[in-house]
Design goal:
Structural class of chain B: alpha+beta
Radius of gyration of chain B: 13 Å
Largest sheet of chain B: 4 strands, mixed
Strand content of chain A: 15-25%
Largest interface: A-B, 25 and 34 residues
Strand order of the largest sheet of chain B: 2-1-3-4
Number of strands of chain A: 25
Radius of gyration of chain A: 47 Å
Largest sheet of chain A: 9 strands, mixed
Shape of chain B: globular
Oligomer: heterodimer
Order of helices and strands of chain B: EHEHEEH
Strand content of chain B: 15-25%
Amino acid sequence: MKTATRQTGKRSRPRSTSAKAPKAAKAAKAATGVLGLDEITGGGLPRGRTTLVVGGPGSGKTILALQFLVNGARDFDEPGIFVAFEETSDRIVTNAEGFDWPLAALRKSKLFFLDAQPKPDLVQSGNFDLSGMLAVLEAKVKSTRARRIVFDALDIILALLPDHSARRREIYRLHEWLLARGLTGVITSKAGGDDARVHADQAFGVMQFMVDCVVILNHTLVLGVSQRNLRVQKYRGSRFVENESPFLIGKHGLEVAVARTLRLATVAVTNERVSSGIARLDTMLGGGYYRGASVLITGFPGTAKTTLSGAFAEAACRRGERTMFVSFDSDGSEVIRNLASVGIRLERYVKNGRLRIVSARTITGSAETYLVHIKSLATEHDARCVVIDPVSTLSKSGNEQTAHSVAERLIDWSKSEGITMVCTSLLDEMKSQTEASSPLQISTLADTWIHLNYLVQAGERNRGMSIVKSRGTAHSNQVRELILSDTGVTLTDAYTAGGEVLMGTLRWQKERAERMATEVSAVAGKLKRLRLDAEEAELRVRLHSLGVELDAKLGEKELLARTTESLETTSTRDRTRMRELRGADVAPKTRQ
Amino acid sequence: MSHRKRASNAMPRPVCFEFRLYVAGDSPNSARAQVNLGALCRKHLAGCYKIQIIDVYKEPNRAMLDGIFMTPVLIKVAPSPVRMIVGTLNQSATLLEALGLVPAE
């Protein structure tokens, strides 16, 4: 019968919340103030209901529970009571001093601790129940107007109960009491997280079925690296993120990693371009990277990934933007020295405080830890541009599983902050050399992906650069050769010959051969022209001499004509004279 | 519930016992504890005892001061040492020993 009423109650809940205005639906949840958990649960823990937090030793149950109270008291004006079954309240408070919680101030008016540790010399004789505690709490709730209550390590007290039915009874009693008072309760209990043994323990099973929300905390070691995960196993009447989410215990308490924070929606997308630091690369990208974009530079070791990202950092500093360079490989001074050798001078920017070089070799731990550190350092530095070299460190041994989601969140975060981020990613030489085998698979998330590789040809290794993708920008499809010199980084066109790209000496040879061929042909042309000129001149000379000859001939001809004419004239005159002399009459013409 | 004598000492004791029994209203466990305590006192303490019964519902603050989180709880205030026994006080060797009624053997 009891089950029946509970079920109807539970069934009516989602209906009523969904029918109501969003404001009312929001009120049905008690915000935890735990970063990420409120996103996972869609607003917080069920208000006026009970939530069970389960986890192994050291999984962060107490911290989560206390944080729930602290945030409630501090931010939502909901006083809380912490019932400590395991550790004394003093120890809990001392342990929590590492967090930025105003415990001392809150304890005065809004946060109350109740020590309920069974005394070690407690003698048990027969059955007992928790009515005493509830009576005490009743009075406490009334006097403090508490809205939230935590039972930390309830398993301790349940273990004292003689049998399963007694445990079940007391759990039920507690649950009913909480429901009747409308208190938002959190019960923490030790268990092996998602372990199957949880269900073997009957009392525990009862608890899991009874409460409205179950949060499971896991703390495991993967290849020696601590990985913490949180999972909401159930949440009656509400949607929730069902997957396991990594979390971290940081300065503010638990920080649960969620892929997309709610803030992301408000980010303005801009068309502003920022220089990559290499003029020709900017041209290739049609003006540079987009502001707020995530750029991925992949390549094998030594392909000048760091140099390319250093150029970006220098350009950012030159523009006057605060920049952070996170190096997982080397110390800050080494980075400066190495980049100075290729004409990228960062030292002055480090000195004037614009550039912050973080050597992250010292940070150890899970990928989550890295992410949190990077975030907090960037926020501290107020960075607009961030370089992470190489981001593939995140997927070092032990972090393979989480690295992708961390990288995803890193990009989400940088976007939501409007930070332009350049990440380099080391490709494993042993792995297949296809470009897509970036270990983090963040290539799909990155806006611009530049790939660097070696081209081994004719006993040389040369660096080739190509833009694999660049969202929203027209970009060159050509492979360029990347040349590092002490004056800086430049790109040159690569020659293609016979379907192959030529670089280095081969490119130089090719260039030289072409230059020579041009010269040769120029000379040959000149020669030919000269020869033609000569021929022309010769012809002209010949033409002239022929003219002269012609003139001579013509003169000769004229002379001849004239001579002939005069001869004729003479002979005619002579004949006439002779006839005159002979006195002859006109002779017949035929005789002539 | 049977009251089985496991070990008894008929010799009257010079010291008088002072008990404080915390109960939660008339819940079954609390009621049983009251009955059991009365029987035990009559049997072993022969009139030299004082029992104060406190209802946690009526005096929660007092319960809080005494650190009462389970009910029923019996506090042996005198003779020292002060002992706290939780449960329905079913008569057992453990209980008698805790009250100092049977010397540990």
